[in-house]
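Crinkler effector protein N-terminal domain-containing protein structure dump, as promised
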Amino acid sequence: TLNCLVLGSGPRNVFSIEIARTKNVSALKELIKSKNPIAFRDVDAANLVLWQAPESLRCEDNAFKETIEGLNLQDDHSLPVRILSRIFSDPDAECLHVIVKAPGKRTALS
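C-alpha cells r here:
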C-alpha cells in the first residue's frame, strides 16, 4: 500500500493505493488516476507527475504542510517501467509515499 497526496491538498486528503511492489510506475499512475477521476478528468495517466515523498513524513506531523511546501520538486524522472520495489523498499504504512501533480496545475497547498 502506498499513501499518496495530490499536490495542493492537505494531510486529510491523503489516499491509499493498493498495488503490488512488483508493478511499475506506469501502473501506479493508472491507479492514482482511477482513484481521483474528477481531479484528473482531463489528464492522461501517463502525464501525471509523481515524486517520492521524504522518508518518515507522517500525515499527522505538525509541520506536514510546511515540509511539503518546502520541497524542491523537480520534474518527474521516474521511468514508467521502473519497478516500485526499487523505489519503495519497505514503505511505512503511516507515512506519505507519493506526491502527485497533474501537468499545468498550481502547486501551492490550500
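Helices lie at 25-35, 64-69, 84-87.
lmk if u need the other ones
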